[in-house]
Amino acid sequence: MTMKMFKLRIYPNITQRLQFERNFGMGRFVWNELLNMQTKRHENGGKYVNEFGMNYLLKPLK
Fold first, then answer.
1. Residue 58 pLDDT
2. Cα 14 from chain centroid?
3. What is the pTM (predicted TM-score) of this model?
4. CA separation for the pair 49, 53 (Å, rounded)
5. Which residue, among 61, 59, 60, 37, has the nearest Cα to 49 in the 3D structure?
6. Inter-residue contact 54 to 34 (CB < 8 Å)
7. Dist CA 40 CA 21 (whole Å)
8. Around 42, how many Cα atoms within 13 Å sit in the side-chain half-sphere?
9. pLDDT 10s digit of each residue in the chain, 62 long?
10. Closest by CA position to 38, among listed 20, 57, 23, 22
11. 49, 57 in Cβ contact below 8 A?
């Protein structure tokens, strides 16, 4: 099996850059909220929620 790799660089314009920042900011917010939910659940003696269960916790964040 031969694997190839391409390295490229993108140069987004202002609106694309703002959209990237917005999307990464939302991803960071969701990560922090779910991490906070897991730590509170652990402190209260609850069980760990797996990735499938976290999908149901995302609905209230929307």
1. 82
2. 23
3. 0.67
4. 6
5. 37
6. yes
7. 28
8. 8
9. 888 999 999 999 999 999 999 999 999 998 999 899 899 999 999 888 888 888 888 887 77
10. 57
11. yes
